[in-house]
Amino acid sequence: MDTIPGCIAGGYVDMETGMLLGTVTTGDTSGATLETLAIAVANLFQGHGVRAFEALLNESGVQDGDNTGFGEIAVFSNDHLYIFLRTADYPEHVVCYICRDSANVGLALTKSHLSLGSITAAV
């Protein structure tokens, strides 16, 4: 978490159960925020709207039908950047980072990707 610019919280979610399996937070945020996100993550990655969008991509030939599912989603709110990354080794698990809105978006995305190797190695 220290390597991701503006990161104030991180969590590890199992989408099959909706459980938050681990958290790290700073004084700027609470674990309750991550608990709420854990419930929404499965819908974010596997909800009807996302599945319909993926079907359109498959039909148009933009996305390979064998490799479905988004690997990452970034959400911008008024005061935070939320980064959700699906792990390759555990596709039903998602790493969530909450960053301040002042964070460099490109650097936060790059650094969050670089963190996945050590996170999945620890699982």
How would you portray this structure in words?
This protein is 38% helix and 28% strand. The protein has one domain (7-122): 2-Layer Sandwich (Beta-Lactamase). The mean pLDDT is 84. The chain has 3 helices and 5 strands, in the order ββααβββα. With 123 residues, the protein is α+β, with helices and mostly antiparallel strands. A 5-stranded antiparallel beta sheet has the order 2-1-5-4-3, with helices on both faces. α1 crosses α2.
Kindly summarize this structure in a few lines.
With 123 residues, this protein is an alpha+beta fold. It has helices spanning 31-46, 48-60, 105-122, and strands at residues 7-14, 19-25, 72-76, 80-86, 93-100.
User: What's the total count of β strands?
Assistant: 5
CATH class: Alpha Beta
Number of domains: 1
Instruction: State mean pLDDT (0 to 100 scale).
Output: 84
In which order are the strands of the major sheet placed?
2-1-5-4-3
The CATH superfamily is Dynein light chain 2a, cytoplasmic
Instruction: Bin the helical content.
Output: 25-40%
Low-confidence parts, pLDDT < 50 over ≥5 residues? Answer: none
Strand content: 25-35%
Most strands sheet: 5 strands, antiparallel
Would you identify the CATH architecture? 2-Layer Sandwich
Order of helices and strands: EEHHEEEH
Gross morphology: globular
